[in-house]
Structures are given as structure tokens and as C-alpha cells.
Amino acid sequence: MAITYGDAKRWQSEPLGTAGDSLKKDLDALEGARDQLETQGVPESWTGVAVMFALARRTLLVKQLDRHIDGKRQMQRALYDAETIVADLERLVTEVEGEARAKEFSISTDGTVSDVSDPPTFPNRYEADEWSRIRQQTAQALADDVSTILGRAAAADATIAGGVPPGHVPFVDDYGVADPEVAEQWATMTDDERRAVVEEMIEEQAAEAGIPTPTITWEPETWGPWGEARGGGSEIALNEGILDDPFILNTVAHEMRHARQFEAIDDQDAWRWPWQDDPFDMHEEDGITEEQAEEWDENFDDYKSTSNGDTYEEYFEQPVEVDARRTGKQELEDMTEEELERLLEEGQR
Amino acid sequence: MTPVTTYADLVDAHLADPSVETLEPLRDAVRAAPGFDPELRVRVQADALLREGRHADAVAVLEASMPGSLLSPAVHAMLAAALRRTGREDAAARHARLARAALDGILATGDGSAERPWSVLRISDEYDVVDSLGARPVSQRLLADGPRRVDRIECQDGRTLHFDVTRVPGAAVRA
Amino acid sequence: MSQLQVDFTALHDAANAAQGAAADAKGHGSADALTWAGGSIPGASSVDHLRELGTSWDDEVAAWVTATNDFGADLAAAGEDYRSVDQTTGGLFGGLLGGG
Known about the structure:
The complex is a heterotrimer.
Chain A: H1 5-8, H2 14-40, H3 49-102, E1 105-107, E2 113-115, H4 125-162, H5 170-175, H6 180-188, H7 191-209, E3 215-219, E4 227-230, E5 235-239, H8 247-269, H9 281-285, H10 290-301, H11 312-317, H12 319-334, H13 337-347
Parallel strand pairs in A: 3-5
Antiparallel strand pairs in A: 1-2, 4-5
Chain B: H1 7-16, H2 20-32, H3 41-51, H4 55-64, H5 73-85, H6 89-107, E1 118-119, H7 123-132, E2 137-145, E3 148-155, E4 160-164
Parallel strand pairs in B: 1-4
Antiparallel strand pairs in B: 2-3, 3-4
Helix pairs in contact in B: 1-2, 3-4, 3-5, 4-5, 5-6
Chain C: H1 3-25, H2 31-39, H3 46-84, H4 91-97
């Protein structure tokens, strides 16, 4: 799912700049059209009821074009920003490839560094070991450079995705986009580090929801969904295939929100001594109303799923999924580099 | 003065003046009520209905168990919760007061020691007292103390609480 | 020049401006540019986003061009009506341009 080294090696910055320039030309033309319509579109000397309709229509057309222009400017900026990052990436690729060649290493499309030198013969064991040690150090340095390159690629990708204005690309509208810094950091983390972050997130969100920490099940890449909340939230399943994508932060928050939904329903139904705190209070404090919990309760009693023969739209638009998706998107978009570092630190404790 | 005759009258009198004087006539009336179930089976039934979110059904089942289940703290608390969820706020508030009054009534009869055990209408009431004190029971033993029958409940936190079950039907046969 | 003649000229100019605006905007959805950009970053998730955005933008501009042309045509028609009327009637024009 993540960008491979083989892909990143082929990236070029110039077309991004060219595209940005082309967008500028389009913007100039569209702004000219907008100005023309706005200043001359309805004659000042005109009076009467009809002119009101005409003005309204003209205003709407101008507004629509303005919205398009704003969105285009946003993407133009993103393309130029991405161009800078990819130019840096190109330089790093040239350097690492040159270094690898010079030092007799090769870097495969998946980023693996291999020693392709003919090892000399050594008079003694000590020198042979020393040679190995130096070779390994060099290989590690090259691997680190590859990691940096993949980080830059992720940052450029996220920069462009972040330039997509709302209302055009459903995936971006529904699921959100990670900050370029977050994407870059995630790309350079090891799988163990990523798992540590995920586990810490789940632990913290479970505490917020007032539930015991769910167990985590890692499903193989061939498993269909991104994630699933099982056993009323006592188990969270995650697809291993998205571990290398910061999108998993969305999925974790999404599934944990389902666990929260289950808990809110339970707490709403539970009876208590009337003088004790209402167990539902903590959910209300976090912005969950009783009406919402009831709506979720009814939804779970009649949960729509494509594996049950319901349509994808029915699954997608049901209240618990709309709510969980909103939470997941917010979590992904709100994530910062600092917060990610904190989660990693706490997760590794 | 009109003599008190209905359960509601006795309940109102006790709520207005929560004392041993108003509690005993009410307890006697409850023990003698048709449908008085010392095992309080309705409690398990209603609990399950509440967990399923079937609040109206829970209300129906609990109200049908009255007046036999009067003064059960759990029944009044469950009714308060279920009535609130079905929009009957006034009735819910009344049962919330009754839940507290039922517990206070029990607590006023002693101090939980072997010498001065709390007196209860039902075994279920013992567990309500234990729960409301924030304790978890780990074991229960029925003891004979002269003519008295006393349930001794040991709790997870080390407390030992005693309940006078002499007048609880069927208590004598529980080992 | 009578008031009616002024109005005809003004509406005619406005109609030209609208149709001119439509002509200026035509074809500036930027889909080609975005596809070009996507081609330079193989493997990125943005490649799909750029393609979708480009299509959406092209459609949006095309729809805007049509709507603006229609607006211009309606203005021109209103101008023609002014020209064909010997006296001011007022209510005639409300129907033509209302609720376009």
C-alpha cells in the first residue's frame, strides 16, 4: 500500500511545477471570466422586477466560479509545495544511487540494500570481521537514506492530497488526509514502532471511553476490511496491510468509536442506585446524547452489512458508521507530528 | 383522622416520616401482600429486560410485581431507571425516593454487626445493602443465634456484614 | 436616445459580456494538467485523487459555461423584447427572466 522505493526513484518534480503553472493559466482565464461577468453582467440602467432575478442568477454564477477558483488556487499551491519536496527527493535518489554504485551495493525496488561486491580474501579473521562490520555500516547508512526518501515521498503525496478541495473526491471528503509531517514520520517508522503507536492509541481511547482495553487481532493483508470492532468492543481487528499507511490512524479511531458506541448503549441501559452518578454522564460530557445512544442501539439491532445482502450504501449511511467515520476522519486530520511522537514514546514504555 | 388502609397510604406515610414507627406497618403489609416473593424472581427478569433496552416491558413486569416487591431497593431503582427512559419522570422520581428510603429503612434497624444485624424483608435486600455500601460479597453463611437467624456476608474488602433474616420466609432452609 | 433604446443596448452589452465570460472559462477545468502531475508520481495515492478531481473540475467548468451562456442568451432575449415594444409595459420582462 505504501509507495515503494522503485516507484519513488521514478518521481519527477518538474511536471508538478508545470502542472502548477498550467493551473495558473486556467486561474487567470477563470478570474477574467468572473470579473467580466461581475462587472458587466447586468446593466446598471436596468430597473424592475426582472433585474432582481437577473442579479440573483449572476450572483450565483459568480459565487460558483469563485468556489472553483479558490479550490484551484489551493491545489496550485499544493503542487508547488510538492514540487519542492520531490525536487529534494530527486536529489536524495541521485545521491543514494551514486553512493550505492560507488560502494558496490544495489538497492532493489522494495528498498532492500544488497552487497554486490566481491569480498577480498583476508589474511586473518580480524580483518575479515572488520570488513563485514564496515560493509554492514555502509548498508545501514544506505538503508537509512532509502527510508528518508520514502518519507519525502509520503510527505509529497500527503501535500497533494491535502490540496484537494472539498466536494470533488469522495475518499478525501469521507476519510480525511494526514498532515505531510505525520505521513513522512509514519513512512520512516518500523512496523514495531507503528504497532506500538496503535496499541497506545487503543489503550488511551479505551480509558477515555471507560472500557477495558480491547485485545488487538492483526488480520492478514488478504482480509477484506480495514478494521472491525468485535465482541461488543472487547476486540479490535486491524488489517496488517495498512500498517504502513497513516490511514490506519483513522481506522483505529473508527473502530474504537464503535467500542464507545457499544459502551454508551450499555451505560444508558444499566440501572443504578439513583443517588449514584449516572454511568451515562461521562458519555454526555464527551458530547454523546441519549438520543444518539438510542439511535445507535436501534441501528445495531438492525445492522446493515454487505455480507448480509444489504447494499454498500445502506452500510455506509447507517448512523453508527456515519458517526464512526466522522471520528476517524477527525483523528487522522488532527494528528500532529508531536502527538505521534508522544504516542510512540508512551507505547514503547 | 382517616385510618391508613392502602399500600400507597403506608408508603406515603413512611416517605413523609421515615422512621421505624412508619416502617414496621409497611413491612408487615408487604409481607402479607399477595405476590410477595421472598426470592424476588422479578429482579432477574427485569434486569435482563433492561439490558436488552426493553424499558417499557421492564416497567410492566416490575409494576405487576407490586405491592409484593415494595421496599426492595433494587426494584425501586430499576423502576426509577425504566420509568425515566419511558418518559414518566414523576413516577421515576417517586421510585428513586423509595429506593433510598428502602435502603435507609434497613440501615436504621441496626449497624450490620453480629449483635445488631440489619433486618431485611428478603435475601435480595441484603445484596442491595452490600452493593450500595460499595462492597462485593464473597461468601454468605446462615447462622443461628438463639431464636434469631442471621446471614453473615463476607466482603472482598474484608468487611463482614450481618442481616437478621428471622422473618424471611424460607431463610431457615438455606444453608 | 429613448430609455428603451438605452436599455436594449445595455442588455445587449450585458449578454455579450456573459457569453464572453463563458467563452473565456471554457476548457479551463485543468484535468489534463492534473493527469500530467499524476504521471510524475507513480505509486502515490494522490494519483487517483488527481484524476478524480480533474474530471470533477472539467465537468464543473463545462456546466458553468452552459449556465452562463444560457444567462447571456436570456439577457439578449430580454433586450430584443425591449426593442420590439413601442411603449414601456414593465410586466413583460418579469416573466422572461424570472426563475431561470
